[in-house]
Amino acid sequence: MSGADRSPVGTEPRLGYPHLGFGVGLRSPHFQEVLEREPAVDWFEAISENYMDSRGFSRHVLDRVAERYPVVLHGVSLSIGSADPLDLDYLTRLGRLAREVSAAWVSDHLCWTGTLGKNTHDLLPMPLDEDTLRHVVSRVRTAQDVLERRLVLENPSSYLTFSGDTLAEWEFLAALAEEADCGILLDVNNVYVSSVNHGFDPVAYIEAIPASRIVQIHLAGHTHCGTHILDTHDGPVNDRVWELYRLAYGRTRGVSTLVEWDSRIPPLSALHAEVLEARRQVTEGSGGAEDRGLDAGRGEGAQEPRDPGGAHPPGAAWVELS
Ligand SMILES: [Fe+2]
Question: Which residues contact residue 159 at a Cβ distance below 8 angstroms, ignoring those fewer than 6 apart?
Fold first, then answer.
């Protein structure tokens, strides 16, 4: 790792999108506590499909959260790699939700999720060759036209590759971002999971991704099964992933970071400790996560309110970790 791996927290916008700081996924077990305590995290990421067309309690929570924090929408059903026609109705509804919650950006995965109108609810790997690249570039451009904003696409974790692949995943993702003019959500845990499963060098992957296109980083836990790794999102971030995170963060000179925890979801305080650890990993001089509570950053150390790039109504509270 170079000296750049402990850069200060940056503020540089990416592709016009703001640096939001250190956030967590908005998950239903934490709804009540988030509303009542307004924890000191910088921003929340919400799974798009859980809130589209919903006017129930979940949507109420998202609306309240969006009044207080920047919100990013993260989808799992765009199926940008599918051979099916793009679902324009889905995109229209996604765009509506993004406007209603003033989403800072909208992301999904570089994958396909089904065909013939069926959604498998799995993020399936694509053949990585020039034909697929042309196909996905065209679809990303169409989706961006419908959404009237740049998409941000995430590298998925995977468990198989195609024998006809002619491009490495990092080559495909870098070319896609440049040719479709979209952003990248670099999931550092996914890079590590796939690197073990397929036997590539995760450092080479991260160094090949154009830093200027990385709008966001994901961190998560995984499960090592001996012969392979499952991307389970059910525990704290692994030490090797922290190393790779410092490398990726340093290359971007600071970019929005989010901790995902989707299975065996812990109390909000544990998730909060993990996001504080993410900040500590890339910031010199900050204290350990273990001595900071959910209100860290709300008191004497709290920053002045700032406008997170239009994602927040003017005057709304801005809480930053410190
Ligand atoms: Fe992710």
Answer: 125, 197, 228
Distance 122 CA to ligand 1 centre (A): 13
Q: Pairing mode, if any, of strands 71-74 and 106-109?
A: parallel
Output the CA 157–ligand 1 centroid distance in Å.
Answer: 8
Taking the centre of ligand 1 as the mean of its atom positions, its distance from the CA of residue 154, in whole angstroms, is 7
CA 189 – ligand 1 centroid, Å: 8
Structural domain containing residue 26: 16-303
pLDDT, one tens digit per residue, over 117-158 is: 889 999 999 999 999 999 999 999 999 999 999 999 999 999
Residue at 189 is within a domain: yes
pLDDT tens digits for range 58-117 = 999 999 999 999 999 999 999 999 999 999 999 999 999 999 999 999 999 999 999 898
163 located within any domain: yes
Distance CA 139, CA 146 (A): 11
What's the CATH number where 190 sits?
3.20.20.150
Q: What's the mean per-residue pLDDT of the chain? A: 87
Distance 1 CA to ligand 1 centre (A): 23
